[in-house]
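I had to read the description of the data format several times before I understood it. The format is easy to grasp once an entry is in front of the reader. For illustration, here is how one protein appears when written out as sequence plus structure tokens:
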Amino acid sequence: MDKRFDFMGVHLSVINTSKVFNLIAHRKISIPGYVCFPDTSVVKEANEDPFLASILNKAQLTIPDGKPSQLAAFLKGYDEVETVSGFHLCNALLNTGLSHYFYGGNDTIIRNMQLNIESEFPQANVLGYKAPPFLNKKDVENNASIQKDMDHIRTLNPDLVWIGISSPKQDYLMHFFYQQLPGSLMLGVGGVFLYFSDKSLKSPELVKKIGLRWAYRLLKEPARLWPKYYGTLKFLFFNSGYFIRALIDRKQ
């Protein structure tokens, strides 16, 4: 198990972008397995759902996603920790000799994504793309359609299977099905599929660096994202004591 720190019940990896890339590109992660990228909204859900917390905590890597988790790492003395962009990680790994399969989005997203990847990464070894059925979280386990797709992916035996459905559904999917892909590592990267499909949806790098990616996305999709971000901000406010205690411990 990699080195971890506790972020309100989720055990996040002490990691940064270059380390994640090296671990995956040089195949230093045991397979089969899965990698999670929980943002603060997923940490909030895991705080209320012990089963989800256990899924995140059992991942090969549980990667900090968002400034609150990076701040928590800093306050706990892990200055080297940084948030890892699934989009940039995927871009970098497409330039390696590893083989890839993309499972997520919808038919339109997948079609646009495939066209863009084939144009920008002509050398990439992509074995396939597939949009899964739209399901509720409770319908992921033992789903016949997903099972059929996993059977097909197993015959292709890709090194990396990128899962792009909303969190935490993607984390449940990886947990229930990763053992059926004995030669693959699954990575739950959520909105990365959208960014490959339409880069205008991705926030500028400066916005991301100053921790306002959520605000940029909220401006793009206010009706869909406001309830999620409101709940997350409320969660952080009511758990502000976590950061205060971590700050006191660091100073001591």
